[in-house]
Design a protein that fits this description.
By secondary structure, this protein is mainly α. Helix content is 78%, strand content 0%.
């Protein structure tokens, strides 16, 4: 019981301290709005292309929302030694890190539904497969958050975390099939595309919105779950090696 009380208090503390602050709430709203406007202008197809743009907008909003926020929160607390005090909390390290990342996951899921709310103004979403769509959004948010945790543990400063995040984020955007179908990429780059979690997230979202996924939905969701487990395990190993040992 005390374990879950500690988990809840850490999660609530992070939500109040970081994610529910007005600048971050406005960031969560403005970023998807900016992406939506940019893609609509770039596509030149007007409102008819909203359904085609929605999976990419959701994926990009989640990826940047989660990795940006977690890079700041974890790195900031580590630098100011407040993270060391959290290590004294009477809960296992695994549960402590789930509490620390829970706020970013919720922030990413909330970001994902900003483009959805905008799309509902221009198109009928009744055909959208809501259950698998929500599952895909949550898994993309978890995978992106754990990627942000993996990066934040590897650096010491916030600017290093942001720079290192871009090293992963921008190549993923161009290789995951959001801008170009993977089949049109050079043969040398295709294996790299299938080694990225966002490839499976974008494909799952495209399948649930348009029924146009290239891979089976179960494979997409299973691959995302595997990436979540692997990134979390690697992050825990690095925390024990760099911050505790």
């Amino acid at each position: 019981m005390k374990t879950w009380i500690a988990f809840w208090n850490i999660l609530v503390k992070d939500m109040r301290t970081y994610y529910l602050k007005p600048p971050n709430v406005s960031w969560g709203l403005l970023f998807p709005l900016a992406w939506t406007g940019m893609f609509l202008v770039r596509s030149g197809g007007g409102l008819d292309d909203v359904a085609g743009l929605l999976p990419g907008l959701v994926a990009v909003s989640v990826l940047f929302g989660t990795t940006s926020m977690l890079a700041v929160t974890v790195t900031f607390e580590k630098k100011h030694r407040s993270f060391e005090r959290l290590l004294l909390a009477p809960i296992p390290l695994e549960l402590l890190m789930l509490a620390k990342t829970g706020g970013a996951i919720l922030f990413g899921v909330a970001n994902a539904f900003v483009p959805v709310a905008m799309a509902a103004l221009f198109m009928d979403l009744s055909a959208l497969a809501w259950a698998p769509f929500t599952a895909a959004v949550v898994l993309v948010a978890v995978a992106s958050t754990f990627l942000g945790l993996f990066i934040a543990v590897a650096v010491s400063e916030v600017f290093e975390a942001q720079t290192f995040s871009n090293f992963f984020r921008f190549p993923m955007l161009f290789l995951c099939g959001l801008f170009f179908p993977i089949e049109r990429l050079p043969a040398l780059l295709r294996p790299l595309s299938y080694a990225l979690p966002l490839t499976y997230g974008a494909d799952a979202l495209r399948e649930t919105v348009q029924g146009a996924g290239a891979l089976p939905l179960a494979l997409d969701l299973g691959a995302l779950a595997a990436f979540c487990a692997a990134l979390f395990a690697l992050s825990l190993r690095n925390i024990r090696r760099r911050w505790i040992a």
